[in-house]
Amino acid sequence: MVQDRVLPKISTTPVQITREEGLKIYEDMVLGRLFEDKCAEMYYRGKMFGFVHLYNGQEAVSSGIVKAMRPDDYVCSTYRDHVHALSAGVPPNQVMAELFGKATGCSKGRGGSMHLFSSEHNLLGGFAFVAEGIPVATGAAFQSKYRREAMGDQSADQVTACFFGDGASNNGQFFECLNMAVLWKLPILFVVENNKWAIGMAHDRATSDTEIYKKGKAFGMPGVEVDGMDVMAVHTVAQEAVARARAGEGPTLIEALTYRFRGHSLADPDELRDPAEKEAWLARDPIKQFQAYLVEQNLVDQAELTDIDQKIQATVDASVQFAEESPEPDPSELHRYIFVDD
Ligand SMILES: Cc1ncc(C[n+]2csc(CCOP(=O)(O)OP(=O)(O)O)c2C)c(N)n1
Ligand SMILES: [Mg+2]
After folding, report:
1. Are the beta carbons of 22 and 242 closer than 8 angstroms?
2. Mutate which of 76, 166, 173, 199 to test ligand 1's pocket (most atoms within 8 Å of Cβ)?
3. What is the pTM of this model?
4. How far is 334 from 336, CA to CA, in rounded Å?
5. What mean pLDDT, rounded, does the chain reach?
6. CA-closest residue to ligand 1 atom 7
7. Which domains does the chain have, with CATH numbers?
8. Cα–Cα distance measured from residue 187 to residue 238, given in angstroms and rounded to the nearest whole number
9. Does 255 sit in the ligand 1 pocket, CB within 6 Å?
């Protein structure tokens, strides 16, 4: 079993969330979890093609970060992108339809699981190549800054969140983009979801310094380590980083310590990871922890949480029906959407 790091404690005591905010985050996390469980079912029934990478276990990262942002901010993902897309506001129907390769999907059935995209929701994309989104997100942050400072558009104060894995943080694009982001003080959050594994490669066997957040320092960028199973801790860190970015004070590197509950993809039998390691992380399920927090803070009771779960399950089920009933892309339109004019 790969040794776990001692998890940092971010003080969330002074942070007061309202019932409304708490429920918004909770609903997003549950949507992510139930949507992914349904994806597994549909994949094994042969409804989806290619590789499908699920996010179960990591929900506190997506919800904690994206719910600290505005709907017009930008989100950039990886191939593990369904939940980032949902947090960014892409409707479940459109995400499920995309996974089924249907014309009503957010990428019009052209992309599938690893290439979710929505200009309407400022979702910059899922990317099949490891670290490929990092320069795209850096470019998005640059255009916000350029529009605001060079073109005088005061409304261009959008922040970009760029999600990627521990494995991606060993790729050169990561270092080049950290350099540029600090140099130009770009409004961006680099969010490393350190789930300890890059397929079957343990993080501590693949990188020089396992504490990724410390790599920001080489570029003069603040680096923060956060318990990625604690949504309130992630949310607190995100709020500070978003405020800094929006105020023109530049980027932040956030390393969220988390774990994926399933194999690398649904084609992975997941035989490499030690069962004891999996058990230890399953016991820290971010959704169960947040349920306990909400009840303890008297923001909600257990019966209400059960109602919410049922309501979200109905939404997920409806997304499958929508995807099933949607048309396939028309083969005569195969060449559409390659160029922007289309
Ligand atoms: C440039 C590139 N190299 C290799 C691969 C094969 N590959 C796919 S996922 C992956 C592991 C990435 O792990 P990490 O960044 O930690 O993300 P996680 O899957 O844990 O979310 C690798 C090596 C790829 N897709 N792209
Ligand atoms: Mg990883």
Report:
1. no
2. 199
3. 0.97
4. 6
5. 96
6. 130
7. 19-322 (3.40.50.970)
8. 13
9. no
